[in-house]
UniProtKB/TrEMBL annotation:
Biological classification of the source: Eukaryota, Haptista, Haptophyta, Prymnesiophyceae, Isochrysidales
Signal sequence coordinates: 1-15
Name this protein carries in UniProt: Uncharacterized protein
Record keywords, A-Z: Signal
Length: 229
């Protein structure tokens, strides 16, 4: 069981107004985080006071699967100009096939439309995740994660993070279907030696928005297990 699994959504920004951090789509839709039972603790009561002696620096495992065409959740990341992307839950298929008309307004109202009814949009050149852009994101995230790891300490747990998760149809299904995060099945079968997984996504940018995040899964004590855009 993890101290936390996090997901950060990186957004493109516009020059005016200044970019801000928006509430996540999960928060806007009122979706509650999936609860993951923990075998080591019962309930939400802390069993001991955290000190320098019983905690260790946070070990972060970075997951960039959402930035690659072969592993990203379909219709969530742009790799080709003119391709479809979806916001929220507008339905399983784009409107009208290849010649269909986009329903996402590319202006300041897009966020509210996505939260209220969902919509389909077309990828522009500015939305694309290119090899060069991905390299920059991965480099910056790696540097910052290394710094954060030395600033935070957690009570470590035995075993690999996430191994033994009860799988119904998908590993961490809520994170894949409501947070649109790429989740490798290995998280549920093998786990990873870390205290937290930081998953980076880059959906098409909202006007004036720098990024967002919210928990799509929590453990029994309420600690986040996955952060979602």
């Amino acid at each position: 069981m993890a101290a936390a699994i996090l997901l950060l959504s990186v957004g493109a920004t516009s020059s005016s107004p200044p970019a801000v951090s928006a509430p996540s789509l999960l928060d806007a839709l009122g979706i509650q985080a999936e609860v993951h039972p923990t075998p080591l603790h019962r309930g939400r009561r802390r069993l001991q006071i955290l000190t320098r002696e019983n905690t260790k620096p946070l070990r972060l495992h970075l997951d960039f699967g959402s930035l690659y065409r072969e592993t990203a959740v379909p219709y969530t990341t742009c790799f080709q100009e003119g391709a479809w992307y979806r916001r929220g839950f507008p339905g399983p298929e784009p409107p009208g096939g290849p010649t269909g008309v986009a329903t996402c307004p590319r202006d300041s109202t897009e966020w509210s439309v996505a939260a209220e009814q969902g919509c389909w949009g077309r990828c522009t050149e500015a939305d694309l995740v290119t090899p060069g852009g991905r390299e920059v994101i991965e480099h910056v995230a790696t540097v910052i994660a290394a710094e954060v790891s030395q600033l935070l300490a957690v009570e470590r747990v035995s075993g690999n993070l996430e191994k033994g998760y009860t799988v119904e149809s998908l590993c961490l299904s809520d994170c894949q279907t409501t947070a649109f995060a790429a989740v490798d099945e290995a998280y549920c079968s093998e786990g990873v030696e870390a205290d937290a997984v930081l998953s980076i996504t880059k959906p098409p940018g909202f006007e004036g928005v720098a990024g967002s995040g919210s928990a799509c899964a929590t453990e029994a004590r309420g600690r986040p297990l996955w952060r979602a855009p």
